[in-house]
Each structure stands twice: as structure tokens, then as C-alpha cells.
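In response to the reviewer comment on reproducibility (Comment 2.3), we provide here a single inverse folding case reported in full, input and output, so that an independent group could reproduce the run without further information from us. The C-alpha cells appear first.
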């Protein structure tokens, strides 16, 4: 981490084109230095050699024959040349309105311009008052420190590490038609040196960080267009997460790899609740755990008999399975989709119908209440340790972010399930919704949770108790899975 200390430049009497000095006071240790300047009727020029001596820990590189210098600020190199108005900070070019001047084997730079460039790149705490000819450099700790880039099959995830949480409204982002993606953080102080060293990969061709007076900006040069992006904050660790979604690579090798990897050959069926967790219970005593296990087995039998799809059950009998273990089973079996089957409940006994849920924070009160009720099973788990530690708020956003690459497919599967159930059931189609179901967290595949009806509704409880009605539900989900597989395979064939 860099720390910069207040330095006060006190101007002495200066004459046009006469060499003079400025007193430099370091407030940390009260040591005094002198900084040479040239006073011109148009601008004040400051010595590059003295800037390096006073503000950095390394001697500059000097080429006296060509009058070029390199100043070293930590790992950042600042290249300057006499009779040039350009300054090169690593690979970034900055322009000054007037030329640098050579004098006595030294290069003098226009003070206002060079201080602005230093503030923007390596000294974010710098403030210069040209009227008083005073330079203040306050102690600064970067709150944006490092960037990691991870390439995924259909996009790129960027993790921008921070030392604090920013107000949500202070983070903005957009894709510009010029091929750059911009993220701006109000009150951000960015370690430009560290960020600019980030290795580009995926859709990211180049990363450049800028420090402004009241904000920090990360500019990302894109190799190709993106089809969408999301920005979230995480609190453990503190980070801003950016996903840049891209179309699948259409190369022949890539298509062959995708076909092999994403061929829908295994479906994981999760019958909710079980054992000591009975789930919701109808007025006549019908238990959710029994209804959903029966539907799950009926669905599995259809898949095994009518397709070559392998079926994996998270439970096949009345036993208790922790939520975290259900997705663990799905991942370890190399499942290609995860379907969690449940039955709903509502204090309003008139509520009825079927609905499908995706893993996102709930937007409606009903969705939030439903997720809270389904997640309450955690209290029955023994020795769960910190598996669910702080799995709310920003951390839930992070968990959903990790699965964002499957969100589009999850939405498609959920929509197909709603259509197929609607073709078979007389109950209302309540649509596709979103909520923070813990059981879906960690499933590295398209996933959906289905609420097949309301046991709290006397009419639907009677229907759910009928084997023929449960068979219709199983057939509807089966038909949706088959159509989803067909659609997916068609996309892979087309590339």
C-alpha cells in the first residue's frame, strides 16, 4: 500500500527565466528540501530531477544526449522528453498543453500539467494550488486495490477488490459504442499501478485505471461485443464483481467441446424436505415431503423409460438431506440440470396454482416469505458449521453471480416447465419468479425450483393427493426437460 504525506511548497521570489527554488516541507518528519523551478510569464516549470528526488525512492534514468528521462514511482515508469508535450505513464500517453524545457542537464515540466498527471496516475492525494504555488499531498490509502479476471465459457468475470463497501448508487457502468466498457466508482481511490498491470484475458483486451478528483474509473477495452453485463458488490471479501456476457465461441473445436461438456445426459431430481423435515402440511394432514417424493419418482421413471438420460435423486426415500448436500450431489454426479420439486403454502387459503423459481434475490413479499420458509430447514441441520454463514444480502448476490452463466438456460427451462404444466393442469399458471433459495446455491448447471401447487388450498390439496394429478405434474416436467434438451442440442449443432 502506498502512503503519501503532506508536502508544502512555499514560493520564494522568482523572476522570469531565472532559476530559483521552492521550499519543500514533509509534514511526516518535518525535513526540508528544495525543489528547483523556472518561472515563465506563461507557466511555472518544475524540475523533473527534483520531483524524482523528493517524491520517489529511486533515482531517475537520464539520457543527456537525447534529453530524455524516466521517473520511477514504485512499479510505474513515467517517461518525459524535452521539447515534447507528451508524457508516457507506463503505456498510457498524456498530453500537456506546453512543451517540457531542457536546462542545465535537467528537464523542467509545466507544474500544473505534471501535477495533474501525477494525481491521475500515481499520487491520488495530490492537490495543487497554482495561485499560492502550494502542493499538498495528504496521506492516502487506496480503497480500490486489485483486479482479477476469470474467463468463462460464455463470458468473463472481473473481481475488483476493494477495502470498503461503496454506496450502490455510487457505482455506475456502461458499454460505449467505441468498444470500451467503463466502470466508475464515486469516492473511489484506485491503485492505478496495480490495476494497470492486470493480465488481460477472455473478452478483456486491456485494462486502464484513472483517478479523478472525486471518483475512480476502470476502462476495459473489449475484444468483441458483449450481449449484456451485471455489476454486484460482495462484502466477504470486499469486491465489485462485473460479469461481461458474450456469445458462445463458434469455432469447430469449441463446438465439439461444448457438445461433449453440455450434452444433457444427466438430470438431478431433488425431492424437497424429507425425514424430520416434513415441509408444509395441508389441512387434512397431507405432507409436502411425501407428495414431492412421489412426483420426483414418477418423473424419474419417465426419463429412464423414454430417454437415455441418467437420473440422479438427492433422496429416494423419506430421509433428511441437508440443503448444501443436495447441490453437492448434483455437482459430483456431473448433472446437467437440477430440478428441485416442492409444494407451496400461503396464509391466504384461496391462493392456488403452480410456479417456478430462479435463484435471485426475491422482488415480491410472497417470494421473500417463501424463500425464508424453505430455507428455515437449515435450523434442523446438525453440524452445519459456517456453510451458510452470512448467506444473505450481498453474499447472496455473490452466490447468484457465480451461477449467472447458467441464468439464461435456467430461465428457458423454467419457462418451458410453466408452459407444459399449463397444458396439463387446470390450476393457475403463476409464472416464473425469483427468490433466494439456498437449495439452488452452488448448483453448477441450469437449475430451477418448482412449486407444484398449494397444500394450504383445500381444492389443490385434494388434487395433489390424487396419483393421477401427480402423474400429470410429472409428465409436464418431463415434457419440458425433453424440449429443453432438444433446444439445447439444436443450438450446439448450429454453433
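Designed residues, in position order:
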Amino acid at each position: 500500500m502506498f502512503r503519501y504525506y503532506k508536502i508544502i511548497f512555499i514560493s520564494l521570489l522568482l523572476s522570469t527565466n531565472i532559476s530559483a527554488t521552492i521550499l519543500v516541507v514533509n509534514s511526516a518528519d518535518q525535513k526540508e528540501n528544495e525543489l528547483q523551478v523556472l518561472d515563465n510569464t506563461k507557466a511555472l516549470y518544475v524540475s523533473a530531477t527534483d520531483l524524482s528526488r523528493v517524491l520517489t525512492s529511486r533515482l531517475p534514468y537520464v539520457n543527456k544526449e537525447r534529453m530524455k528521462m524516466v521517473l520511477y514511482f514504485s512499479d510505474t515508469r513515467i517517461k518525459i522528453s524535452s521539447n515534447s508535450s507528451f508524457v508516457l505513464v507506463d503505456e498510457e500517453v498524456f498530453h500537456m498543453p506546453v512543451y517540457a524545457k531542457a536546462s542545465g542537464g535537467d528537464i523542467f515540466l509545466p507544474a500544473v500539467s505534471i501535477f495533474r498527471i501525477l494525481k491521475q496516475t500515481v499520487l491520488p492525494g495530490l492537490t495543487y494550488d497554482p495561485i499560492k504555488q502550494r502542493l499538498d499531498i495528504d496521506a492516502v490509502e487506496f480503497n480500490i486495490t486489485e483486479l482479477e479476471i476469470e474467463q468463462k465459457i460464455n463470458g468473463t468475470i472481473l473481481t475488483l477488490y476493494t477495502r470498503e463497501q461503496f454506496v450502490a448508487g455510487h457505482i455506475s457502468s456502461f458499454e460505449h459504442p467505441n468498444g470500451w466498457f467503463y466502470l466508475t466508482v464515486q469516492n473511489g481511490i484506485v491503485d492505478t499501478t496495480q490495476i494497470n498491470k492486470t493480465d488481460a484475458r477472455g473478452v478483456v483486451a486491456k485494462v486502464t485505471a484513472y483517478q479523478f478528483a472525486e471518483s475512480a474509473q476502470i476502462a476495459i477495452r473489449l475484444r468483441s461485443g458483449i450481449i449484456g453485463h451485471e455489476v454486484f458488490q460482495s462484502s466477504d471479501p470486499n469486491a465489485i464483481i462485473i460479469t461481461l456476457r458474450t456469445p458462445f465461441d463458434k469455432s469447430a473445436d469449441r463446438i465439439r467441446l461444448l457438445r461433449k461438456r453440455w450434452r444433457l445426459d444427466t438430470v438431478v431430481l431433488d425431492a424437497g424436505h424429507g425425514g424430520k423435515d416434513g415441509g408444509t402440511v395441508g389441512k387434512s394432514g397431507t405432507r409436502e415431503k411425501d407428495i414431492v417424493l412421489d412426483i420426483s419418482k414418477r418423473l424419474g421413471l419417465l426419463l429412464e423409460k423414454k430417454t437415455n438420460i441418467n437420473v440422479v435423486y438427492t433422496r429416494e426415500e423419506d430421509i433428511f438431506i441437508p440443503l448444501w448436500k443436495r447441490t453437492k450431489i448434483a455437482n459430483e454426479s456431473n448433472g446437467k440440470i437440477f430440478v428441485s420439486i416442492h409444494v407451496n403454502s400461503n396464509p391466504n387459503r384461496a391462493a392456488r396454482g403452480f410456479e417456478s423459481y430462479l435463484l435471485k434475490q426475491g422482488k415480491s413479499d410472497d417470494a421473500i416469505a417463501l424463500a425464508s420458509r424453505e430455507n428455515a430447514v437449515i435450523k434442523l441441520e446438525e453440524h452445519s458449521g459456517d456453510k451458510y454463514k452470512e448467506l444473505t444480502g450481498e453474499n447472496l448476490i455473490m452466490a447468484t453471480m457465480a451461477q449467472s452463466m447458467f441464468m439464461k438456460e435456467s430461465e428457458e427451462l423454467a419457462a418451458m416447465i410453466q408452459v407444459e404444466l399449463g397444458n396439463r393442469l387446470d390450476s393457475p399458471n403463476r409464472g416464473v419468479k425469483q427468490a433466494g433459495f439456498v437449495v439452488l446455491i452452488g448448483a453448477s448447471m441450469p437449475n430451477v425450483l418448482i412449486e407444484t401447487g398449494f397444500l394450504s388450498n383445500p381444492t389443490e390439496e385434494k388434487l395433489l393427493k390424487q396419483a393421477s394429478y401427480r402423474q400429470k405434474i410429472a409428465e409436464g416436467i418431463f415434457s419440458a426437460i425433453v424440449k429443453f434438451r432438444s433446444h439445447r442440442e439444436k443450438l450446439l449443432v448450429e454453433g
